[in-house]
Amino acid sequence: MNENPIEFEQVREMFRTGELWQKDIPMLNRCLRGLAIRAEENPYIRHHHIIIAQAIHGIMLERLISKIDQRNTILTVVIVAIGVIAATFSGLALLN
After folding, report:
1. Which one, out of 5, 13, 33, 92, has a CA that is 20 to 30 A from the CA of 77?
2. Integer Cα distance of 93 and 96 in angstroms
3. Are the beta carbons of 5 and 30 closer than 8 angstroms?
4. Are 3 and 26 in contact (CB under 8 A)?
C-alpha cells in the first residue's frame, strides 16, 4: 500500500472512457483510496464519487467470483477424477 492514491479527476476520466474496467486490482485499490481520501463537500459532485466507488467494488467482486468459480471447477474435476479412480480400484478388487 505504498503506492500513491489516484486523483479523482484521473479516476473519473478512466470511468468515463471505460478504461477503469481494464485496470488490475492494485490500480483499482489506488483509485478507491483516492476517492476515499478526498472529502468532497459539494453535494452535486459527491454522488459521482459514490457511483464510481460502487463500480470499482463491482469490478473487484466480479473478478473475485470468477477466480473462485475457476478454482471450484478445478476442484470438482479433481474430486471426480479421484472418485473414478477409487471406483475403478474398488471394482477391480471385487473381481479378484
Report:
1. 92
2. 5
3. yes
4. yes
